[in-house]
Records
---
Amino acid sequence: MNNHKPSHPDTDRRRLLGGGAALVSLAGLATLGLTGCATTASGPSLGRVVVIGGGYGGATAARYLKMWGGNIEVTLVERNTSFVSCPISNYVVGGHAGIDRITRGYDGLKAMGVKVVQGDVTAIDATAKKVRLAGGGELPYDRVIVSPGIDFMTEQVGGLQAALDAGGVTHGWKAGPQTLALRRQLEAMPDGGVFAMTIPLAPYRCPPGPYERVCMVASYFKKAKPKSKILILDANPDIQSKKGLFMRAWEQHYAGMVEYRPNAALREVAGTTAKLEFEDVKADVLNVIPPQRAGDIAKNAGLITANNRWCGVDWLTMESTAVPGVHVLGDATLSAPAMPKSGHMANQHAKVAAAAIIQLLKGEPVNPTPVVMNTCYSFVTGTDVVHVASVHQYDAADKTFKAVPGSGGLSAAANQIEGRYALSWADNIWGDMLAV
Ligand SMILES: Cc1cc2nc3c(=O)[nH]c(=O)nc-3n(C[C@H](O)[C@H](O)[C@H](O)COP(=O)(O)OP(=O)(O)OC[C@H]3O[C@@H](n4cnc5c(N)ncnc54)[C@H](O)[C@@H]3O)c2cc1C
């Protein structure tokens, strides 16, 4: 993954995600008795699967259930009309691309025979095996997949919900209107102004994401508002990912512009002032990344099992440890040791779940040895990128995924070739999940 050579995006798609998927799926495919990608439905229906959430986990699961499962009725329920990616959204915040670069539709899935319903799931009735939609509709299922991403624990920070509702403060941690709102605030900020970003205690979605955002904001300021300052108020004791690489980028490209403050937990928001335990920090633009937990539907359906935040799963099937017949993917899960909350990982969870659900619907054993992988790219300038990668193998004794010793690693230094890889990775994974 980290030593491939640049090539045409289509070739990259086959190699990167074909290769990535193969780690998860070859054993699964062998168990399934499939020799290729079976898209043609034949014979009696294997069953009905409803997928809640058309993001990295849910869309991938819908596609792979259809592709590997053949005659499975797959319904995907997503509240938004199109998919807007969080990965690469910091690049948009930095002004290096427009929102259309990270937006894709659901037509590819529809063309494969996935029924795509635009709507909001309000409840899961696990006894009657039905999903309820806002507006009153119901969808019966044999198995349901829940990949709702995260929702925010705004109650932990005084004044935060009101500030977000009023629009004076942004989070930008769900891509779409928030990405654009943050960009507009940066454009409106005077040269010499202060951009402050707060980071919650880990775990949160995308460990390197906040530090990449700093780089992207800095790249814009360097060009358009060079007298401006960036303050990172991190509730954690240290930078959570790619520390040396980010610090080098701040020194090399944005000297004097970026200040990092550890152990700076946000207590309250008042206007664009961040109130910490011992001081108030006045900003011109305040970007708050709120504390996070599994999405609301996971909470309402009783899937949360750890710290009132995350959903425990059986890693062989991604089935909830709390509610039978319900499978949870992506950020909403209680992560295995050293497993990041990332889009790439949600995509891999989806393939484990799709293969397992097909087996369960057939009454056959699931793959006992899944392997998943992750690569996360971060832009440090408009062209230069760094990555972190890891491989995780199921450990039957401890019933969890564990990082494979010696696998993965970090870029030696930021470079432009990885800038091309990062954008190709994005195009490839969107193709993999949405069939576009
Ligand atoms: C700034 C930023 C940068 C990032 N960069 C990277 C990166 O470079 N690489 C990487 O791998 N990851 C990255 N991530 C992390 C990545 O975005 C998440 O880990 C990934 O989106 C998780 O996938 P998911 O399926 O769990 O959730 P999501 O992709 O968020 O999908 C959840 C979907 O469910 C829908 N939904 C929720 N509830 C309901 C409901 N009740 N009814 C109907 N629909 C519902 C939502 O609308 C959403 O579309 C980044 C994140 C951020 C914020």
---
Amino acid sequence: MQADLAIVGGTVVTGAGETRADVVVRAGRIAGVVEPGSAATAATVDADGLLVLPGFVDTHVHLMDPGSTEREDFPTGSAAAAARGVTTIVEHTHAHPVRERRDLEEKVAYLRGRANVSFGLAAHVWPDRIEGLEDLWRAGVTFFKIFTCTTHGVPAVEGDVLRRTLEAVAGFGGTCLVHAEDEHRTAEAEAALRAEGRTDPGVIPAWRSREAELEAVEAVADLVVATGARLTIAHVSSPDVVQAVVAARRRGADLAAEACPQYLLLQESEIAEQGPLRKFTPPARNRGPEDADEMWRLLAEGALTHVSTDHAPSTKAQKLAGDIWEAPFGLPGLDTTSRLLLDAAAAGRLRWSDVARRYAEEPARRYGLWPAKGNLADGADADLVLVDPDATVRIRDEDVISKAGWTPFDGRETRGDVVQVFLGGEEIARDGEPRGDRTGRFLAGPGAVAGTQETLA
Ligand SMILES: [Zn+2]
């Protein structure tokens, strides 16, 4: 088979399992996954001893561009993604939300030449703009982000407004990502904590309580059952929340549950020491190794359907500038998530195929990016990640490419590392170093009418 490029001698890993095979690339796409030694091409990449996975798909990232570029921008955030094997992202920025078709068109035009990886863009639902959602979907947004509690300056969508939103989205076949914390419980808790004059880090888990998250998830789940909307619960923090999602699925809900490394690996108690550097919401809930074991188990079995970073970076200086109330929410994640998942596979908490499935295939399917993205098969985009399963690395603040410049996982030793990354058959990173050229293009969402992709890109 004549080809532009072949990746030979490696072990191909997909959600279905592992197999020794060569991967043939032609014109930016995968042209065959063939018997070892059967690819005929002038250009080969030797993957002996390496795993070959589909490029990772991270559907929940905030690159703050435009919006809060002092925290992150597309060139830095997408370079971090490329270095760690994330070849597709879906981005949304709270400080500069996409709320109508023109916002999307302007953002796509602005981002031309600013991305190292493929990117989709999500919209924000505003309570007074529900009638415009279908037009946004047809314009090519990937999903609609909903907050059930006022957060980051984004107003709450709850009760009857949430019901009407989900009815509308179900009507035109769209998809939502919901940040679920109860508006009334969080508002009451905040007022009480402020009235007491508290500024210790303990206010975060008290304000953003387990009950507030669980009640909101249950209310959203009921509306999903009632309306038939397709929806993902963002950043599920604990097994209790997973169980609420599983119960709704038994009642017919098309409900996905997103896992993020901070809920698998960080401890609830860390905020007492680390303060603003562990301020994110919902907060970490794990209280011991058995909680972490249970979360990993739920991810391996698929109750937690897919992984994202919820990359929401700030520099340490930005995090530590004010008191705990003033500190921005969020953690950087694009520099570390694939390493943490590969380490979990090397340690036997996940299978290698789970990494492909939960951080490439499932999110691509969920958001209509499949079969071009997240898919190591004939006809898919040649977005490929080569992994050395035996490499040992130490995660360090000084290696972080994100503008954040730090990571909550600093000092952690991990096994299994991304050594080479291809986007559309072109190398975009090697040995953790992203290339300078920004060839990532906008991916119109599944609701886009034919031709939109060309028009916008
Ligand atoms: Zn987020």
---
Amino acid sequence: MTSVLADTATPPLTEARASKRASSDRATSFDAIVIGAGIAGLYQLYRLRELGLSARVLETGSGVGGTWYWNRYPGARFDSESYTYGYSFSEELLRTWNWSEHFAAQPETLRYLNHVADRFDLWRDIQFDSRVAAAAFDEATRSWDVTLDDGRRCSARFLITAVGPLSAYTLPRIPGADRFRGEAFHTYRWPHEPVDFAGKRVAVIGTGATGVQVIQTIAPLVGHLTVFQRTPNWCTPLHNRPITAEEQQKIKAGYPAMFELLRQTPGCYIHNTDPRSVFDVTVEEREAFWEKLYSEPGFGIWMANFRDVLTDASANALFSDFVARKIRERVKDPVVAETLIPKCHGFGTRRVPQETRYYEAYNLPHVRLVDTRRTPIEQITETGIRTSDAAYDVDIIIYATGFDAITGAFDRIDFRGVQGTHLKDHWADGPKTYLGLMSTGFPNMLTIVGPHNASTRCNIPRCIEQNVEWVTALMRTVRDRGITRFEATAEAEADWSHHVEELAAGMLYTQVDSWATGINSNVEGRNVRRILQYQGGAPAYRARCDEVTASGYAGMILS
Ligand SMILES: Cc1cc2nc3c(=O)[nH]c(=O)nc-3n(C[C@H](O)[C@H](O)[C@H](O)COP(=O)(O)OP(=O)(O)OC[C@H]3O[C@@H](n4cnc5c(N)ncnc54)[C@H](O)[C@@H]3O)c2cc1C
């Protein structure tokens, strides 16, 4: 049996570039340690180097890229327009890198991030195959002691987490998974070698954004596909296509204006909310607008819809009906169509998967949909999956079962702050942060793309750049003023956490179980909704962060 499920199954070093690993793994003491070599960790490293600080990035994987290093499953690709997603900090990088598609696939994004690491000579400060297991603040030395899962240790005055919002993958709690004799893969832990689907009987468990990408991609390739769906999602067309030479030129010439636009939209996407209410227009106008959104590429349908679609239940119900009609039109079997239409949540209150002929996959004679709310999976057997009413023998099981999102990667590290306080305990009733970038009792620690910051409601690299630049400005101040300790005050943390809670009140998504509200039935204790995301929009978030910088770090004690 081939299985890439266990945490210990980190693939061997197959990236050619990983041979350029940190030049001296023997050094153990740094100004700053960054955990994670995804988009956030790479950019933070670049900026720390510019400040002349010694830095080490510690990364579980064997190569750079984070999300794009791990998620190698068939069909993995952006929902952000490629050119809106790449780094904006280097004009030379923007000028020389050509995205081939409007929504690039994973291999291209991974190539891009390797190119960035090459171009900025980042490799020598990144230590791969290095999973951080614990980090403890030492008050006497005002520094963090970091321990890897193999016992290696290092320390730094400053600890910057770039562990990723979607990096703590989860497997379903189904009895018998270890007995299965076929191949089994979690989409996040996809093997580096190609998987042969020809003629195979394949099961996919999960129909979130990842499941949708896998299903639509492998459906035409497999012998037989059984999809196990617990919660259907409102999926809308991606409309991806190659970038023509003419478009390439326009994209390059338009970068300054585009990045200026992205600074102004709430989610840093090129799509901006329509200021009208659903109820401001006639039924005909409404339908025409929605037809237009449905025919256009990307997240416009989610982000550029009428202003009340995500906040007013009756507006939301009207649009959900519109998408339901589309599903009924596209899926031939009416029973299957009804099973694919969400009944327990409205459009956009969970992450909207973007699809390419996803619904048409269910019209193929060899694709079968199993509704696990009606017939739950009871166990995995040696030969397949058994539900309450049938046994499905398969050769391959794909777990598209997602992540313990936003706080999961933090929980998997034993962070100990002042007086040994455990971060997991500090956040037990929901995260408590200041600006989503730090927590009281955890001095000298910064959390890029952490809970409560704008980034997970964002075209993430745009918010990563903002987070990193804010952290870099703080590091510059600290360096210039000889500061060795900073910490958010308890009052600032309480105020910010309250502000984040208030902003989320009234949003329809808070009434729905999803990873964005911290629910994951595969993780012990993840059954209570939490407010994890800042909902005030990236421009307001950025303004607040800038105010804190301009005030000389109000809400923090620097010494
Ligand atoms: C399939 C998929 C598609 C996506 N598409 C989009 C999109 O279109 N647009 C968008 O904005 N966002 C998208 N995202 C979200 C994506 O995660 C972010 O865009 C972005 O890649 C996050 O970068 P990061 O550096 O913060 O985290 P990551 O890319 O997750 O990197 C974090 C790194 O930290 C490492 N790490 C974690 N814990 C430890 C530890 N204890 N010790 C050492 N290393 C550790 C991980 O191995 C990982 O390499 C997508 C996510 C997925 C899964």
---
Amino acid sequence: MHSNTADAKGIENRITAEEVNNLQRLCKKVLEPLRAHFGKPIHINSGFRCKEVNAAVHGAPRSYHLQGRAADIPWNKQYFDYIKNNLPHVELINEGGWIHVAV
Ligand SMILES: [Zn+2]
């Protein structure tokens, strides 16, 4: 799976079939409905991270990114509120410059 951090550090961001399923679920439940509602493409800063990539970006050791269940998207209050009020999520965090959402 593509990762700028992995490329820069020579890490293979290896993903399993189960993690791909989780990413598809994340797209279906959150990212695609969000894109459809606002009618604009959504930039994904970070999605799946293998252990090495997660460590390299100082991600939480049990981060949902490790399972392909989380995405980081650029901060947008309308997106944040829409997810909060309309879409399923187990985590929704205002990280300052971006939104972290997990399902
Ligand atoms: Zn995140």
